[in-house]
Amino acid sequence: MVAVPALMSGCGGGSGGGAQLEIFAAASLAGAFERLADDFEAAHPDVDVRLTLGGSSSLARQILDGAEADVFVSADEATMAGVVDAHKAGGSVLFARNALALVVEPGNPRDIADLADLADPGLVLALCALQVPCGRLAVTLLARAGGEVRADSLEPDVRGVVSKVALGEADVGIVYTSDVRAAGRGVAGIEIEASRSDPDLQAGYVAAVVEGSRARGWARAWVGALRSRRWQRVLQGFGLLAP
């Protein structure tokens, strides 16, 4: 769990004397949500925002198993639908999209230019596990490109893929544009035009208030703020696309 300080004034429903807002969010939102948490808490000193980051499917399973959370943010609508259909969350809001990108070591020592280069059997390729949105999107992308769907490493979330590449344990990975930006100089990124131009090859981020939330007022405020102009600027500053 990542505890972060956390914007918005005048939202009723928080408990006085130090409310805690538990947000379960897709790992690819880490950098952006840490910034938003700072923003939220700066306006509400009595609210402590805590981020639990991970693969969307893993977070959904935790909520279905009874984990205490106030907001669930998934990188795809299908995973959210499973939680909503189980009456564990409701009123989901689509607030951003994210295109896929190739992530390589700084300086791109293997001279990888596009998806066609992934056919080189000498490259070590890392992907997200197939049960998380990034993994499913990567497989769809490679299939449409006519390439062989293979991976030398399947990681539980995008942070695992970025880490493999940054440590030199993989030559290339497929993550989101936002993950490359968040990693700074630790890696380099190569845009995938097919993903940037096709919403079907993008993550669609949806957020909802979890049923039984103990901080329902603050949770609704957070979800509502995700579509605000101010927070949209922050999200797009991290490489995310408008919904």
Structural summary, described in words:
Strands 1, 2, 3, 4, 5, 6, 7, 8, 9 and 10 form a 10-stranded mixed β-sheet that branches. The protein is built from 9 helices and 10 strands. It has helices at residues 30-43, 56-64, 77-85, 133-144, 158-166, 177-183, 193-197, 216-225, 229-237, and strands at 2-3, 19-26, 47-54, 71-74, 89-104, 125-128, 153-155, 172-176, 188-191, 202-210. Helix 4 links the parallel strand 6 and strand 7. The two termini are 27 Å apart. Helices cover 35% and strands 26% of the residues. Helix 2 (56-64) packs parallel to helix 3. By secondary structure, the protein is α/β, with parallel strands linked by helices.
Question: Quick recap of the structure?
Answer:
The protein has 243 residues and is α/β, with parallel strands linked by helices. 35% of the residues lie in helices and 26% in strands. Helix 1 packs antiparallel against helix 9 and helix 2 packs parallel to helix 3.
Total E-strand runs: 10
- Percentage of residues assigned to helices: 25-40%
**Rounded Rg:** 18 Å
Name the structural class: alpha/beta
Q: What is the number of helical segments per DSSP (H or I, 4+ residues)?
A: 9
Largest sheet entry: 10 strands, mixed
> Outline, from the CA principal axes?
globular
Order of helices and strands: EEHEHEHEEHEHEHEHEHH
Give the averaged pLDDT, no decimals.
Answer: 90
Catalogue the unreliable spans: 1-16
Gap from first CA to last CA: 27 Å
The fraction of residues assigned to DSSP E strands is: 25-35%
